[in-house]
UniProtKB/TrEMBL annotation:
<dbReference type="GO" id="GO:0030288">
    <property type="term" value="C:outer membrane-bounded periplasmic space"/>
</dbReference>
<keyword id="KW-0547">Nucleotide-binding</keyword>
<feature type="signal peptide">
    <location>
        <begin position="1"/>
        <end position="36"/>
    </location>
</feature>
<dbReference type="InterPro" id="IPR006179">
    <property type="entry name" value="5_nucleotidase/apyrase"/>
</dbReference>
<protein>
    <submittedName>
        <fullName>5-nucleotidase</fullName>
        <ecNumber>3.1.3.5</ecNumber>
    </submittedName>
</protein>
<keyword id="KW-0732">Signal</keyword>
<dbReference type="InterPro" id="IPR004843">
    <property type="entry name" value="Calcineurin-like_PHP"/>
</dbReference>
<dbReference type="GO" id="GO:0008253">
    <property type="term" value="F:5'-nucleotidase activity"/>
</dbReference>
<feature type="domain" description="5'-Nucleotidase C-terminal">
    <location>
        <begin position="408"/>
        <end position="565"/>
    </location>
</feature>
<dbReference type="InterPro" id="IPR008334">
    <property type="entry name" value="5'-Nucleotdase_C"/>
</dbReference>
<dbReference type="GO" id="GO:0000166">
    <property type="term" value="F:nucleotide binding"/>
</dbReference>
<dbReference type="InterPro" id="IPR029052">
    <property type="entry name" value="Metallo-depent_PP-like"/>
</dbReference>
<dbReference type="GO" id="GO:0008768">
    <property type="term" value="F:UDP-sugar diphosphatase activity"/>
</dbReference>
<comment type="similarity">
    <text>Belongs to the 5'-nucleotidase family.</text>
</comment>
<keyword id="KW-0378">Hydrolase</keyword>
<dbReference type="InterPro" id="IPR036907">
    <property type="entry name" value="5'-Nucleotdase_C_sf"/>
</dbReference>
<feature type="domain" description="Calcineurin-like phosphoesterase">
    <location>
        <begin position="59"/>
        <end position="317"/>
    </location>
</feature>
Length: 606
């Protein structure tokens, strides 16, 4: 599906570039003296003859976050000059818009790009309206191009097509009387996503941005493992190809079109050595990529040297690193955290004669989307309009909490909010006519926020509104209860730390009564200590059958839990959000708010 033409844009677009770290002075000193019109740097974004300064602004993983994210989800860590760190409040599209618009000032050539997961797993203000509000905000942000991420497939390929091309929702209809949703003004790129029946790309694979003869190509891919982190229905009929093979394929196609400056938008990422957004990822200056680990490192080391930079995402981390390309030359790889808390500002120097990026002249840094700037008025109006529509539902109280109950913001393997959610699922599915569940398992990635004690509006401190509970559980996954053998239950717990989860563990959140020991001094499946897995004090019997509650994502084997997909005698229950809200209502009141769980079901040996 081709993207609609951009509205009111002076530059024609179609793909991209950038990497390395050198001073402007070093660039000028290294430039040929014969370059026509070359004098000195006249400032960012200036056209100074042969060399053109191009600004690339980028972000990733917004997840429909329009309002400033609350709690730890709305903070970034900064390293101060004395080496200590501090937390800084950040995020919110009203502030992101202001920061981006200020950053563009004085830049004649400026591109804004993103690396996926801009929608999906969204707070209620966008999620309640199938992310139409977020697409509207992105249009106002003047986004030029983005790759898809795994969450763009949460509601399937047909809904993704609607996000691109517009039209009212097939069942919910049009939300604003007399107005039809117009879709994205920018192209979504999905070079490695093809239709199984035809082998043809689902979306445009690349995009070429052009202005005054400056041409930069962008190739967009999502992680090959998208089917492992999305419900089966969301990726039905689609095939996800290898990231490196795909990028290299379309790099050659772009080169044949005369595009030599290329940037890859990759919804896959890494883990930096520090959580601070301003951590010096290339501290030793040798550009060896040692400041970051994870899947993106292998991708970056194998993508064609013709690609000048990689804008990445998925892991919600912040980094600006150099990783050597296959020829050994340092190349820039960036990521801007999540939820609009940061944006990356990269300066690319384009050589008109070679039509390529001067790799040694690329400079980049992450910047905080601080809340000390004026709010963008158009974004405030957009948010207000949708808030008016959402208010009757969003502001409805669901329960009360005594203090912050951290989920997304917890770094522990067992998260306090994970315990609450798992207990809610067990309680909701335990009755015989609801499935007869004996235990419940919850995937950690499905906990999208914290429950924050401080009021987000006029509801009062400690009150959990529907909007806040929706933000925690935004997928509306239907609950499943299945028969699972003790052997497969044990196997599933071992899959938390082995197989596809070996290098990036995914510790399931468990309901009350299920206990075991996790020994992180060991490796692989041995980390789940044999003989310690018990239910209500009794060891799990491999030959016995247990009724296990979990959301449909886990029941389908998502997140690498193939053993959970072996369940039989399935009963489909209420949604995860419904059982969560019912639990809050049943276990809390203004006089007796829900306490923070002890989170002591998993004994961790470090």
């Amino acid at each position: 599906m081709a993207a609609k033409p951009r509205k009111n844009k002076t530059a024609r677009r179609v793909l991209a570039a950038g990497a390395g770290l050198v001073t402007v002075g070093a660039l000028v000193a290294a430039m040929p003296s014969a370059g026509a019109g070359v004098d000195t740097f006249a400032g960012h974004g200036k056209d100074w003859g042969r060399m053109v300064d191009v600004q690339l602004l980028s972000f990733n993983d917004l997840h429909g976050t329009l309002e400033p994210p609350a709690g730890s989800s709305g903070q970034v860590t900064r390293v101060k000059e004395d080496g200590t760190t501090e937390k800084v409040d950040a995020g919110g599209v009203e502030y992101l818009a202001t920061h981006l618009r200020q950053a563009r000032q004085g830049n004649r050539y400026s591109i804004t790009a993103a690396a996926g997961d801009l929608i999906g797993a969204s707070p209620l203000l966008s999620g309640l309206f199938h992310d139409e509000p977020m697409i509207g905000a992105l249009n106002k942000l003047d986004l030029d191009v983005t790759s898809v991420g795994n969450h763009e497939f949460d509601e399937g390929a047909v809904e993704l097509a609607r996000m691109q091309n517009g039209g009212c929702h097939p069942t919910a209809g049009c939300y604003v009387k007399g107005k039809t949703f117009q879709g994205a003004d920018f192209p979504y790129l999905a070079a490695n996503v093809t239709k199984e029946k035809t082998g043809k790309p689902l979306l445009d694979p690349y995009f070429i941005w052009e202005k005054n003869g400056v041409r930069i190509g962008f190739i967009g891919v999502t992680l090959e493992g998208t089917p492992n982190v999305v419900t089966a229905e969301g990726v039905k009929g689609l095939k996800f190809g290898d990231e490196v093979e795909t990028i290299n394929k379309y790099t050659k196609i772009l080169e044949r079109k005369g595009v030599k400056s290329i940037v890859a938008l990759v919804h896959e990422g890494g883990m930096p050595a520090s959580s601070a957004y301003n951590y010096n990822c290339d501290g030793d200056g040798d550009g060896d990529g040692e400041g970051v680990s994870g899947a993106i490192v292998d991708i970056a080391k194998n993508v064609s040297p013709q690609v000048d930079a990689l804008v990445t995402g998925h892991t919600h981390q912040a980094y600006v690193c150099s990783i050597p390309d296959p020829s050994g030359k340092p190349r820039l790889v960036t990521s801007a955290s999540s939820f609009g808390k940061l944006y990356t500002d990269t300066t690319l120097t384009y050589d008109r004669r070679t039509k390529d990026i001067v790799r040694t002249a690329v400079a980049s840094a992450n910047h905080v989307v601080s809340r000390d700037v004026p709010k963008a008025a158009d974004m405030t109006k957009l948010i207000g309009d949708w808030q008016t529509l959402a208010a009757p539902i969003a502001n409805r109280p669901q329960g009360w909490i005594a203090a912050d109950i951290n989920g997304r913001g917890s770094t522990a393997y067992e998260k306090p909010l994970g315990d609450v959610i798992a207990d809610a699922q067990l309680e909701g599915l335990a009755p015989a006519d609801k499935g007869g569940a004996q235990l419940a398992l919850m995937n950690p990635g499905g906990i999208r926020a914290d429950l924050v004690h401080k009021a987000s509006g006029a509801e009062g401190d400690g009150v959990v509104t529907y909007g806040e509970s929706f933000t925690v559980q935004p997928f509306t996954n239907m609950m499943n209860v299945v028969d699972l053998s003790g052997a497969n239950l044990i196997a599933a717990l071992k899959q938390q730390v082995s197989g596809s989860n070996l290098n990036s563990v995914k510790i399931l959140q468990v309901s009350k009564g299920l206990t075991y020991t996790l020994d992180m001094t060991k490796t692989g499946a041995d980390r789940v200590v044999d003989g310690t897995i018990k239910l209500n004090g009794a060891a799990i019997d491999p030959s016995k059958t247990y009724r296990v509650a979990m959301n449909e994502f886990l029941a389908g084997g998502g997140d690498g839990f193939a053993a959970l997909a072996t369940g039989t005698n399935k009963l489909v229950g209420a949604s995860d959000l419904d059982v969560f809200n019912a639990y809050l209502a049943a276990h809390s009141s203004a006089a007796a708010p829900l306490a923070v769980p002890a989170a002591d079901r998993i004994t961790v040996v470090q």
